[in-house]
Amino acid sequence: MPIYFTPEGRLVAWYQKNTIEKYRPIISRKLIDKYGKGPFDEAQINKILFYTLDWYQQKFIKILQNENELTFYQGLFLLHEFSCAFQQENPNVSPIKELDNKEFAVYRRILKLCLEQACDLKLVSSRPSSIEYLKEKEDVIDQLLYFGDFIFACSNLLAEQQLIEDCIDLKFTSDNQFYFDHKHYYGFLITKLMDSFKSHIDMAVTGKNDLNDFIAASKKCLGVEYGAAVGTIKAIHENSESGKFTLDEWFIYPKNLENLYGVSYEQGSTFFKGLTLSKENKMSLQDAVYKPHNLNKYLYRPFLIWNVNGKNLTFVGDRSFVESIMSLTTNAFGWNKYPIEWENPCFKEFIKNKVMYNDKILEDEAEKLLKTYDIIFDRNITYLKKWNGQHINIDNEECGEIDFLFIHNKKIIIADSKHQIARYDMNNFKNDRAYFETNKKSYNKTIKRKLTYLTSKIHEVQEHFQVLTNNKDLRIETFSFEGIFIINTPTFIMYNNEYRIHTLKAFKEILENKFIDQVYKLVIDEGDNQKILDINYPYFKKTSYKVMDFE
Q: At the top level of its lineage, which domain of life is listed (predicted)?
């Protein structure tokens, strides 16, 4: 494992080619012995992916179980703290040229997995922390990073299997080394579409006061000032010879918060418990990978409880603490996710307001665009207006409240706003598929119901817009209906959903009459024939080929 030193004196690690060459033949032989060399149908590929994922997970856990020296995990902790510093200073950018941005993101997730799983272990403290010790463990860390990388890779491929019909294939090189590949044109297209995400993210809206709102709620609802919590961690680190590597009994933190800042021990305990990860509440390795937005993980709980020399001791990094608070404020509270330990009427009200605000900021931005382009629209419709004032209630099981109803290009468009949690990989994107497609009360079912209802009420919809514009001559009874969703950050299902899903960028282009669905053309040579593919929306369905014979 190369350990890279940055100009700031920090360390970054990644695995090297010889680790792949050591383990790839082993899993390749197992796959051939168990499943043969194909061809494979979709069900078989799913079994193969689960088998491969399980093999890498077992190897990952076994390495951790064989390493019981505290210093080893302190080394991983140090690497993670450095990674947090890089992330906070230059978000989503790798600090070294040897790792691309995506690899650096995976590297950080692997380190978190290691530190989380250490909560299950019986550790001993017999070696002092040092760079030299870390160098001794290069090969071990190398293997962990390799196995961890493939754990996330297999998990993402399984997610792709759920998102895309007939997507993945297992292949072997001439010397029987396995690799997974995309069927059809999917690999090419996934790369193209994912590369376009940044242009969508650039127009996304964010809460301007998320951290300050939490600071106020923490003081009001939990009785703990954020600055006091940070000050307590800093004071404990500064007054210990071990500094950031300080291991103390958990009660030391609420006790010092009480002694230094006058916060009651009970209130301090509640606050720190909400940020603590232990053997009792950590997830299994499999769940930690499959459930990326569950709060019982290191990303959201920076206080780790490890058993060292038979005693439960607590470990927290100042960089990890800041990262956790920022993750909670920007990617949890606004979606009704918060530490269960913090639940009380006051904090629940804070969360309720954040959820409402979260929905509102996306709707507000959509409304600005509608006004900018002089679109006739109405927002948050719960009834259809009548000239006689006897309005028709639609906020019921037949229809339901509509976020936006507007007229554009001889269409009456029903638009529901969905401010989803930001997603960055396939394992996360599959959650959006559940929300839009497969849940019992999926968004698609909801908008279909609204479309059905309003289509049957075209004259009432026309009258609604007449009253809205004070124009009895307005005629839209010949217009067609369309249902769409407006989202904040891009998600993979927007390329394949039954009803169109548009980011603010795409929504703006629609209102400007500039939105164009990209059509991809691929020409595949097969001997004397060529296959020409027109890839249209929805992009990820089994494709029909036009076969052209040039003889």
A: Bacteria
